[in-house]
Amino acid sequence: MPLSRRDFVRLTAGTGALAALGQFGRTAAIAAPTGSFRAMIGIFLFGGNDGWNMVIPTDARHASYLAARGSVGIPRASLTPLTNSSYALHPAMAALRPIWDEGSLALVLNAGTLFAPLTKATYQSRTDLRPANLMSHSDEQDHWQGLRARETSRDGFLGRIADKMAGGTLPPVISMAGAAIGVLGRQTTPLILPSSGGLPGRSGFTAGGTAKNGAITALGSNADGYAVLDGVARDLTRSYDQAVTANTILAGTAPTDAYFVNPATGAALTSDLAKQLMIVSRMIAARGTLGHARQNFLVSQSGYDTHSGQVQAGATANGLHANLLGDLAMAMAGFHKAMGSLGLAGNVTSFTMSDFGRTYLGNGQNGTDHAWGSNHLVMGGDVAPGAVLGRYPDPVLGGADDITKEGRFVPAVAQEEYLGAIARWHGVADADLPYVFPNWSTWSSAGRGPLALFKA
Q1: DSSP 3-state assignment of 175?
Q2: pTM for the full model?
Q3: Number of domains in the chain
Q4: What pLDDT does residue 11 have?
């Protein structure tokens, strides 16, 4: 069957062959009413982050935490305490402590996929209200990015926000995580960037030729039968022109790069996530050149499927998870400092997402298994100082919030309540929230709604 123009562009995005794609039918419902720039950066932790060891209670609940976590529990003395809070971060996340102290870091407790408000009792009695295929990597990644808890998504919330944004020289939705669902809109397509190197140039394209002939040469196929070819060719030409613009930003170095260093040693950060956020910093610094009043980014870090080796036996503050969270914290801290150097700390919000949480009970391999709700971090100069939102679950295994006996907790906060707060801060109009979040009506009534994440 011949490909439609839309199908062709989406297929091209999925292969990563084109880094930038044409945008069609864009609206401009998102404006900058005060003339201020804003950007939101989703940090997706692929594999299912153990949020229970990322954010840990330090009050009387810590004894229950240790008793229930078993082989993966971390002693209180090792933790990174958060001033004037009954919570601490993992020992490897000390780089974020100064950001908490300045009032630019918030905690969201026990958030996850929900189709409708659930308790343990309604989870057990109402299978029709359960999200589909819980605890499956691919399905839960789709749920977090597409926000359709009981069906498959073909587009995501960052892309749908971009559908309502004015464009510029480059698309305002930018992915360092490939053609993920989250950045695909219904009317717009993302700019997809590598964490290192540049974008491909034009191969086999004759600048002086017609759009149609140039596209046939570039594609290496006989497309005479496709009525849509001229449109596709124009999109290809525009995409390559966008790549040239992007390469001027990606090449070389930028002043913001200097902030991506280990705060303890001063050594340059080399993790892939740090490289991604460094590129994001450059794209934000170039916002004027790109003509962006708003930008959406998706970056990612892999390796969180910690069934084994999450902690070291006898030294639970160390291990695979500690290495991952250490890289995450230093990359986020460097990014925050870079935004401060641009005078944009209050204009930029970054936030974590992940497939799902892990079981509260450690397994026999010094790891944890797939679960449901989890804790998350939100960072930016406009977050409410010291904000701790949501509700930490009853840590008793098999207790009021645990749907099994291993610590798989029913989320207290829906993804829409969490991400919807950030989207509203970003500038999404209330009238457009049902478009961005297909199940918005469920989470904007009966006392439910966006979390109070930001300063009033």
Answers
A1: strand
A2: 0.87
A3: 1
A4: 36
